[in-house]
Design brief:
This protein has 42 residues and is an alpha+beta fold. It has one domain. 14% of the residues lie in helices and 14% in strands. The chain is built from 1 helix and 2 strands. A two-stranded antiparallel ribbon has the order 1-2. The longest helix is centred in the N-terminal third of the chain and has 6 residues, at 2-7. InterPro entries: Rossmann-like_a/b/a_fold.
Length: 42
């Protein structure tokens, strides 16, 4: 991604790349769903 941004003429430090892995988490014994569409992840 940084190479693509640089190839388009932008500074590659202008992009931040976040890596997210979905997992099943429990809160008070109840599974809490994570969603990338709703940007709900920990």
């Amino acid at each position: 991604m940084k190479a693509a941004v640089s190839a388009m003429g932008y500074d590659k430090s202008s992009i931040d790349i976040l890596i997210v892995q979905l997992a099943t988490l429990l809160r008070n014994g109840v599974a809490v769903s994570m969603s990338t569409r709703r940007a709900e992840f920990i």
